[in-house]
Amino acid sequence: MNMSKRLWWIPVLVVVVNVLAIVLSWASLPEILPAHFDLQGHASGTMSRSMLLLYPLIGVAVCVFAWIIARIKPRLRTGLTFLASGVCLILLSSTLVTLTSGTMPIFMLAEPVILLGAIVAFVVCVVKSRRDSTQK
């Protein structure tokens, strides 16, 4: 099994951690949660507790979509794994911001860094894959 096939556990693990974070805190969560926090931790909106379940569901959809594309275009597999991992990490970060009621702005600040890193990793993998395929 090559390295890119083994990397798929990363986004799956991030989705599992997201689910665990929600499940472990579910009983103590109010029905309406603060959402859309500024850097000082002030909420500018709300969402229902059940909406929190969308984050891991979106993560699963991203993983499945990336996996399907990787099956069709195997040379994109590594890049798609990094991209899916980044998206799932952003979703986990959003969950953690909500669960901490915005008191941990580091999670919000991490989101653009994660997104940029995931996009750069994807582009690097695609460029390397193209270069490797033209050298053969």
Provide the descriptors you would attach to this structure in a database record.
single chain; 136 residues; two-stranded antiparallel ribbon; 5 helices; elongated
Helix content: 55-70%
* Overall form: elongated
Structural class: mainly alpha
Overall number of structural domains: 1
- Portion of residues in beta strands equals 5-15%
- CA-CA gap between termini: 21 Å
Quick one: biggest sheet?
A: 2 strands, antiparallel
C-alpha Rg (nearest Å): 17 Å
Secondary structure topology:
Elements: H1 3-6, H2 9-25, E1 32-37, E2 43-48, H3 54-72, H4 77-99, H5 106-135
Antiparallel strand pairs: 1-2
Question: How would you describe what is shown here?
Answer:
This protein is mostly helical and 136 residues long. The chain has one domain. The chain is 68% helix and 9% strand. It has five helices and two strands. Strands 1-2 form a two-stranded antiparallel sheet. A hairpin with a 5-residue loop joins strand 1 and strand 2. Helix 2 runs antiparallel to helix 3 and helix 2 runs parallel beside helix 4.
Would you kindly provide a brief summary of this structure?
By secondary structure, this protein is mostly helical. Helices cover 68% and strands 9% of the residues. The protein has one domain (9-22, 34-135).
